[in-house]
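Dear Dr. H.,

I hope your travels went smoothly. While you were away I took the liberty of generating a structure for the chain from your last submission, since the lab meeting agenda had it listed for discussion. I wanted you to have the full record in hand beforehand rather than looking at slides cold. The sequence, exactly as received, is reproduced here:
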Amino acid sequence: MLTLDKIFHASVILKDIIRKTAIVRTEGIMDDCKLFLKPENLQRTGSFKLRGSGYKIAMLSEEEKKRGVIACSAGNHAQGVALAATKSGASSLICLPDTAPISKIEATKRYGAQVCLVNGCYDDAYNKALELRDEMGYTFVHPFDDEDVIAGQGTIGLEIVQEMDDVDAVIVPIGGGGLISGVAYAIKTLRPSIKVYGVQAAGAPSMYNSINDSHIECLESVSTIADGIAVKQPGENTYDLVSKYVDDIALVSEDEIASAILALIEKQKMTAEGAGAVSVAAAMFDKFPIKGKKVVSLVSGGNIDVTILSRVIERGLMKSGRSSCLLIELMDKPGQLKDVSRIIADHGGNVTNVHYEHASEIESVNGCYLRIAMETRNYEHVEEIANALRGEGFKIVE
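The corresponding predicted structure, in token form, is as follows:
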């Protein structure tokens, strides 16, 4: 059984494996609560996962280590197992979904593991890993539904309470539930008054649905930029622990996740992957009653693929009103674009792209559409510019 003693033991074992991640205060992300971050994106391997896998592998017998270890992962657990196994002198084979970011695949190899790519998502990689375990005799290291793994993740809860015991709430990402199970158990055992909230991506609400319906459910499919928490079904141990120790669970949208990633980059100079940013998104978009409270959002990982980072940032800019687009119907005559540009500039907007097109559905044969992309401050700024254009006789279509 999971015990507080086991979590304390894990904290001792992990001292020479993990990096200490001190809590930091945010600047400019939240105005109505004191928001702090537990930056596990700065952990070795870029994720909290090293804690659970490091403790699990440290507890294996020499015979189990000699057989080698196998694991399945969307990427972060893979790197944790690979590094922990290499440090302990064991070989490792990791099954990853072929949708995993290339950066995570290559990092797993660099830490010393062999990689087996599996068609599908995390759950497909899980089934393949079990198949190979039975066939080859490897020792399986589960990414979340294992007491030693959960105990390793629970060391984060110990650190939060030890560093900031007056915290009112802790917000934690949820995939399969190993992280929040350990964190919630540790915190609720030491400080029952602290609220522990969980967050999932709306495109992968496995634990959210399971808790709401009071039984473990398996999703038919998952789809989210938060690939690290794209899990179809929670574990039995994690479901029980979340049911008992977590106060509430909320969902965040893709746009909200993108906005949180952008806010962390701009305001904190910190890079988080989608799974790591969901806890900040939940705070930013009022998913829990935290106004006036002292809150820690756990940023679980920072291994975002740089090839999608620009797309995520663009989505965050659109969601926050920092990047916007207006479609204007006007007469095709000299000076129109000049007037539109002047109005936008006078109100502090910056035109970044212009697209001109004739449209047959416009009543006037001299009519056309002008699509203007702009850099703006927020949605209020966009509306200010739109109203100024209307005030000078321009018709805003969208």
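Two observations you may find useful: DSSP finds 15 helices and 14 strands in the chain. The longest strand covers residues 323-331.

With kind regards,
E. W.
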